């Protein structure tokens, strides 16, 4: 039986012909990395290969690593296997990984979205024989509103909170979502304050994107300074002593999971904005069709439901287990201890 070009192993997605792994979750000698989120770029590999814009991101997160940067569409060979990176549109510098050997082409998407967010390089369709797709939001219930409308609602929410002299606390992952929010917040309303994890990651990305000015919250920040303004914070800050010092405040989360009211209740969030850095149901289906792929492999998310639907539509589709899907707060460990309010320091 012919060995598949890519195999799902206990360490990650493995190309035996090149002896290289794609987004491995256990330490390996050589890893090609799709993007900077913690579930896809892990510490401990001997050599990392990624898009050159992702080099400062993963270096910030992981520390002193041996990493090589590549351009979009740049073909590089490892043991006669051809690899190239193509825009995934998920976050800044996120890539799909194209693998070609003996006339066979596979594409591993990592995480991806088809809506152009204005800060990430837009998603690019890559033709292939086998397409490995995430299924984070692989249910028909997930259907995204255009981001222009979502940001109009976010800025209106901020303005309404300001009229009531309250601080607006907006949660988003420190890598990706936070910068997307930052790019489109209306600074005519007020000032943008940031949690240390978001500030530090944004500083890494400022050479790549023209972001509005932000002000880091430190132990010297008075809560009176925050009133009427907006604070960008990672989800991990919710319920912490840091946020309790901002009273009176109103919270909101920007996530695809805000589609469900139950998710907002469980997270004790006052307001939910449906904004995702992943494909919705239609985006997944349209992407798969556009690749012309003969085989579809579904990973993290609603993979079983989504692959069953694909089979019902006549596709050759199956699922594979991975350790992706927990983006967590994708800042570095040192960001978790960035200067913030401590007990008794906010006035």
From TrEMBL:
SUPFAM superfamilies: Metallo-hydrolase/oxidoreductase (SSF56281)
Residue numbers spanned by region Disordered: 316-347
NCBIfam families referenced in this protein's UniProt entry, alphabetically: Xnuc_lig_assoc
Highest taxon, organism lineage: Bacteria
Entry GO MF terms: RNA endonuclease activity
Identification of the protein by name: Putative mRNA 3-end processing factor
InterPro entries reported for this sequence: MBL, RibonucZ/Hydroxyglut_hydro, Xnuc_lig_assoc
Organism: Pricia antarctica
Lineage start: Bacteria, Pseudomonadati, Bacteroidota, Flavobacteriia, Flavobacteriales
């Amino acid at each position: 039986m012919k060995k598949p070009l890519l195999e799902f192993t206990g360490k990650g997605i493995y190309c035996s012909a090149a002896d290289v792994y794609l987004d491995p979750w256990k330490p390996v000698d050589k890893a090609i990395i799709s993007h900077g989120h913690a579930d896809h770029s892990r510490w401990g590999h001997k050599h990392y290969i990624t898009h050159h814009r992702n080099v400062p991101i993963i270096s910030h997160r992981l520390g002193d690593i041996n990493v090589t940067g590549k351009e979009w569409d740049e073909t590089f060979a490892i043991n006669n296997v051809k690899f190239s990176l193509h825009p995934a549109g998920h976050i800044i510098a996120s890539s799909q990984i194209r693998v070609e050997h003996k006339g066979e082409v596979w594409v591993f998407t990592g995480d991806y979205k088809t809506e152009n967010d204005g800060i990430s390089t837009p998603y690019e369709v890559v033709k292939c024989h086998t397409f490995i797709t995430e299924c984070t939001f692989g249910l028909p219930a997930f259907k995204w509103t255009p981001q222009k409308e979502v940001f109009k609602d976010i800025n209106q929410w901020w303005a309404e909170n300001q009229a009531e002299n309250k601080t607006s606390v907006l949660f988003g992952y420190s890598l990706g979502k936070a910068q997307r929010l930052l790019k489109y917040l209306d600074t005519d309303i007020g000032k943008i304050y940031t949690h240390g994890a978001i500030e530090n990651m944004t500083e890494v990305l400022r050479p790549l994107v023209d972001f509005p000015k932000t002000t880091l919250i430190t132990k010297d920040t008075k809560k009176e300074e925050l009133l009427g303004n907006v604070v960008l914070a990672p989800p991990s800050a919710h319920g912490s002593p840091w946020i309790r010092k901002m009273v009176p405040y109103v919270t909101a989360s920007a996530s695809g999971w805000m589609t469900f009211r139950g998710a907002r209740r469980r997270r004790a969030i006052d307001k939910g904005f449906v904004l995702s850095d992943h494909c919705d149901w239609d985006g997944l289906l349209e992407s798969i069709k556009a690749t012309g792929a003969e085989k579809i492999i579904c990973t993290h998310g609603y993979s079983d439901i989504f692959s069953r639907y694909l089979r019902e539509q006549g596709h050759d589709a199956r699922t594979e287990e991975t350790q992706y899907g927990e983006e967590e707060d994708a800042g570095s460990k040192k960001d978790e201890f960035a200067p913030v309010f401590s007990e008794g320091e906010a006035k």
